[in-house]
Amino acid sequence: MFKAITAAALAVTALAPGAANAATGTSVAVSYADLNLGSALGRNVLQHRITSAAADVCDYGKFQDISRMSAASNCRAGAIDAAQPAYEQAVASARRGTVTVLGAASLIVTAQ
């Protein structure tokens, strides 16, 4: 029962990175504890979570001018690029069959 609750809590946190973003401002933890990174589907879901987290940490609100839109776009691209080494390491660990404790099965996406 405890494992199911913990996994569900991590999944909710990963799917709602805005909640974690509110606490840190420019960074959000993205969990992959519920994903099989040995599969293409698991890797695609994690990439989507990274992209969503980057959009959250680089949210400049509703803006109308081009310079702020460009800054937000550059921030998102930088955040996604900065998360890629952690993504690659997580995938490599999954392919080797390395066991990761639930709490450590996350990576950090930071506004760039």
Describe this structure in words.
By secondary structure, the protein is mainly α. The chain has one domain (2-110). The chain is built from four helices and two strands; from the N terminus they run H-H-E-H-H-E. A two-stranded antiparallel ribbon has the order 1-2. The longest helix is centred in the last third of the chain and has 31 residues, at 66-96. It is elongated, with a radius of gyration of 15 Å. Mean pLDDT is 74; it is low at 1-24.
Concise summary:
It is built from 4 helices and 2 strands, in the order ααβααβ.
The overall pLDDT average reads: 74
Strand content: 5-15%
Radius of gyration: 15 Å
Give the total of beta strands. Answer: 2
Percentage of residues assigned to helices: 55-70%
The outline comes out as: elongated
The parts where pLDDT drops under 50 for at least 5 residues are 1-24
Q: Helices and strands: which structural class?
A: mainly alpha
Widest sheet, order of strands = 1-2
Domains counted in the coordinates: how many?
Answer: 1
Q: Give the N-to-C terminal Cα separation.
A: 39 Å
* SSE string: HHEHHE
Determine the number of helices (DSSP H or I, runs of at least 4 residues). Answer: 4
